[in-house]
Amino acid sequence: MTKVELIFIPLAAAGHIVSAVELAKLLIDRDERLSITVIPMKFPFFSISNFTHSVPSSRIRFIDLPVDEFDPSLDIRKYFNIMVENSKHVVKETVSKLISQSSSQDQQEEDFPKLGGFVVDMVCTAMIDVANDFGVPSYIFFASGAASLGLFFYMQDLHDEQGKDLTEFENSDAELAVPGLVNPVPASALPSSFFQKDRLQLALTTIRKYRETKGIIVNTFSQLEPYTLKSLADGRIPPVYPVGPILNLKGNGQDGLNNNSIMFKETMQWLDEQPPSSVVFLCFGSMGSFDVEQVREIASALENSGHRFLWSLRKPPPQDMTESPTDYSDPRDALPDGFLDRTADVGRVIGWAPQVDVLAHPSIGGFVSHCGWNSTLESIRFGVPIAAWPIYAEQQLNAFHLVVELGLGVEIKLDYRKDQHYKPPIVNASDIERGIRSLMDRSGERIKLLNKMSKYSKEALEDGGSSYKTIGCLIEEIMDQVRRNGEFVSSC
Ligand SMILES: *[C@@H]1O[C@H](CO)[C@@H](O)[C@H](O)[C@H]1NC(C)=O
Ligand SMILES: *[C@@H]1O[C@H](CO)[C@@H](O)[C@H](O)[C@H]1NC(C)=O
Ligand SMILES: CC(=O)N[C@H]1CO[C@H](CO)[C@@H](O)[C@@H]1O
């Protein structure tokens, strides 16, 4: 039996590393020949211990590399890229050591695990060079959906093949005919990285690198994006493996980040007391927070809508969008006077939310979300409709995809955008209230469609489901590559 070792290089950020570790678990569960070493790319202030404790298998190990000081004057993405670039040599040394250690320990030649390849996070593509140094294949782990992947390749084609200046799309009302999407995509749904000259080069370099790999593992499932996946299978890019929805559904408040168990119990108890599908849940992800002026508009929208609510309200850091939000010591500091008293019977304001447990709760009837891909998949999994309020990265496209393409959500503001370079105008209470009312109206086709998708989402990873089969194919492909020493064959 040939044992095969894979090296995973995830980005240590919510939505990336958790999914990567879940993927690692799925792979080793499926094939006892596989073992995986996870080497996260992380910021100095990030603790990977939060992610290692949940891994039961001796065939997954973590290596925590030291990282350089973070220079806060740098753009966070630039810092990150420099850091990944600078980590290449130490990753190479680390992997060399692993290989030589395992060959000296094992007695029998056939027991030596062979290096099967690198599975590299969608933003850590510099590590493909290290895989190349070892002469092993690399695979991308793309933690977003097929629609984003398709858009990325389309944008790179526009730039590289058609000589288009992508920065012209900033503030433009152009619409783009992206292959694999039925509706024209408004320029306002593009990720900001395509608008800004310095970030554009980085984005293009990253996407070009995807083309050099042996496969792109995508966190989606074929029933969610059939048309997009078909269009991506045109042979112009490496094979795409839809293996999702990869979620961490363990729940019980153990979502890997700060979790206060008293708050958790109280929240779940309160939800237990609410009628089915009656509560709006508002939560904007690990980077999502709003300034006080915007918080007040949300508060009055909630009050005016009359719906029950659970609101994960987070305090913006001093340098918004470069550091994570924190919890308010007293949320009254941000809320309108008397809001908590007036809404005490119908709502709760909390800090960091145990999102999976909340979405899984039958009282939840709608989710006001930033449309991070992981949150989007969780919401579909539990059949909770989304009111889309995207903030950054590819969230505007996810929101467009969910609301316009798939008809699974409604709009709060599809072209909202906030990052280091954009300070968005305030979304007023009446717009938010309209979105919430429409979200909580369960009379139309949307809920039926969503329930169907929720069912597909559960089935995809069950024995015989579409993603289950794809994972089998992927493992076969990895094993074939090892057998043939990197010569390209596609078995699926
Ligand atoms: C998804 O995001 C939520 C909230 O940001 C986080 O609690 C959870 O761990 C993430 N799950 C995955 C699989 O990344
Ligand atoms: C809220 O904003 C919308 C634009 O998004 C505008 O049309 C509307 O008049 C505003 N409503 C109020 C009450 O300010
Ligand atoms: C659940 C868990 O292990 N949380 C830890 C995450 O990392 C921070 C920072 O190191 C710790 O303080 C938490 O205890």
From TrEMBL:
Keywords: Glycosyltransferase, Transferase. It is an enzyme of class 2 (transferase). Coiled coil: none annotated. SUPFAM superfamilies: UDP-Glycosyltransferase/glycogen phosphorylase. Its EC number is 2.4.1.-. The keyword Membrane does not apply. GO terms for molecular function: anthocyanidin 3-O-glucosyltransferase activity. It catalyses: an anthocyanidin + UDP-alpha-D-glucose + H(+) = an anthocyanidin 3-O-beta-D-glucoside + UDP. Transmembrane segments: none annotated. CDD domains: GT1_Gtf-like. Belongs to the UDP-glycosyltransferase family. PANTHER family: GLYCOSYLTRANSFERASE (PTHR48048). This is Glycosyltransferase. It comes from Turnera subulata.
